[in-house]
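Let's practice the habit of predicting before peeking. Look at the sequence and jot down your guess about where helices and strands might fall. Then scroll down.
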Amino acid sequence: MATSRNRKTVYIHIGHLKTGSTAIQTSLYENRGFLKEHGIVYPNSGLVKDSVIGNRHYALSKI
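Done guessing? Here is the structure:
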């Protein structure tokens, strides 16, 4: 059984069009070093880097 000591929390923002998803993902991507320093993992898995639409985990939304 998991204890509070080894539990992890995952936050997933699944936004419909025009809900700020790209802005959230861009901010998280640009601040991933800061997040890592504070124990927050912003995964590279499934990350699509695009100079026009930004950096997003679009591939993960297809699972």
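How did you do? The chain has two helices and two strands.
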